[in-house]
Design goal:
Elements: E1 7-11, E2 16-17, E3 24-26, E4 30-34, E5 38-41, E6 51-54, H1 58-67, E7 72-78, E8 83-91, H2 93-102, H3 107-122, H4 126-139, H5 147-160, H6 168-171, H7 174-189, H8 192-197, H9 202-221
Parallel strand pairs: 1-7
Antiparallel strand pairs: 1-4, 2-3, 4-5, 6-8, 7-8
The protein binds zinc ion.
Length: about 220
């Protein structure tokens, strides 16, 4: 089901900080506006697993939109034109992949994917990802094979811009790993993203899926 109103992400043009986690986001930060809370970073808004697809390729954009359950429109204020201008979309990785497959004849599309993959890998600290994945496996022995890598990569990307505030060791503690696994379960194993896409407030959507999340968490934790 597609939402009536697209979720909007703004590229800020001044120093901003997240009103939930209090992170200083610097200039040109990507934020969403929450009715109650104010500005939110994409991590707090639960949009940080989405991939940016810049405007420009209409066919690719149309297809990615079609396959992505959760999606956001990225807007930037134009100082010269005095209006918000669309920069592209944030879409789910699998949706973009599917869209790209259908556009495979287009060699530019392939080149862009390679570029994006290389960029993503460059932002990952391999050692940290391995450590984090190992912790996930230790604490959640029944987590389906291979999932720990995705969870670890996401955590690594999330913290990579935040070195200094969050020491590496701190992000490997049980609570941090648990939170990362919960976020993954929400997105991957429940209707959470669908609810957000339908316009649910984050906390209402979390309430809806909390039982299912707990159930899976317990299952993954059990070592027997
Ligand atoms: Zn935040």
């Amino acid at each position: 089901m597609k939402q009536k109103n697209d979720i909007k992400v703004f590229i800020s043009n001044r120093e901003s900080s997240c009103d939930e986690c209090k992170e200083e986001l610097g200039r040109r930060a990507w934020i969403t506006l929450d009715r109650d809370k104010g500005a939110l970073c994409l991590t707090c808004a639960d949009l940080d697993h989405l991939i940016f697809l810049p405007s420009g390729d209409a066919a690719l954009t149309r297809r990615a939109r079609k396959y992505s359950t959760l999606m956001a429109v990225v807007l930037k204020w134009s100082l010269t034109r005095k209006r918000y201008e669309r920069q592209g979309l944030l879409v789910e990785d699998h949706a973009l992949e599917q869209a790209e497959k259908e556009c495979l004849a287009d060699s530019e599309v392939r080149a862009r994917r390679r570029e994006r993959e290389a960029e993503r890998r460059a932002g990952l600290d391999e050692k940290y990802v391995k450590q984090f994945a190992k912790r996930v496996r230790e604490l959640f022995p029944k987590c389906p094979r291979g999932r720990e890598k995705g969870i670890a990569e996401h955590a690594c990307l999330k913290y990579s811009g935040r070195i200094g505030r969050t020491a590496e060791a701190k992000t490997l503690n049980e609570e941090a790993v648990r939170l990362a696994v919960i976020a993954h379960i929400r997105h991957a194993e429940t209707k959470y993203d669908e609810l957000l896409a339908m316009g649910y407030e984050r906390w209402d959507a979390r309430d809806e899926v909390v039982g299912r999340v707990e159930q899976i968490l317990t299952k993954w934790e059990t070592s027997l």
